[in-house]
């Protein structure tokens, strides 16, 4: 779970843009009271965001000796835990809430979340994973802060049945960009939960999911003739700061809100400074991110950045003599290598799609 807040106060936080930057047309910082709630040092409006993998009851194991026993079998257990989760979400009252592993297959739980969040002023959007996996995403936008202009769903239709939500919102309270001007800031918000890296053969599949998200963002803005605007990417990315996904997003101008708040760099020394949850293997890890990108952030063209990232994975696998015999991504890898050698202008993503069918 990660929670971040951003304040409209250009004098309060002077973030070095060479390493970190804040979202929207103002500087950002995070403060907490002793109770843990975010607080603002000024009277300006605060925009806060929470991303939280709430662990679907159908996946929560209760007995390590009998892996088939799940929390979903015991209503009292899953209901009490999820009511506490909602209690905490309402206590924090973030402007934006992005949940993963939301149990969309249980009507009682869905109704409880939607009813309580709606009563607190939130507009909710849920999206199930494909192929009836049982869980999915829920994004809640507090209507005191943002008006939802558009909502889109992105289905990856891949081996992990993963999905993503895109919300185009506009601030209700204008943000001051200088002493004389205020704007109703528009923002693009994405909520997702990437494929878990069970082995190295899934590295390109995970990278391709991120590529699809970024390509969808570009396409959405072009089709709707929108000017470039701030982007917030939230979710469980199932990968640390050492991974290819992290490096790919950094190459596209995104920065981690945690890195901004704690002045962390991309160095190895800062790779293990925080954790966000315990995964199904029992490992504690920092994999939940709130990524931020301002529209003026310079970056490489998306397809070139994607090609370089994919080629980097292939080179690492070759150096380690990792062979994925019989796997569809093995064929995709050779196609990608060939395309990069012959021309950097090849559409790598389309080749991966075709080879995987």
UniProtKB/TrEMBL annotation:
Organism superkingdom: Eukaryota
Single annotated GO MF: 3'-5'-RNA exonuclease activity
Protein name: Endonuclease/exonuclease/phosphatase domain-containing protein
Transmembrane segments: none
Pfam families reported in the protein's UniProt record: Exo_endo_phos (PF03372)
Residue ranges annotated for the Endonuclease/exonuclease/phosphatase domain, each copy included: 76-297
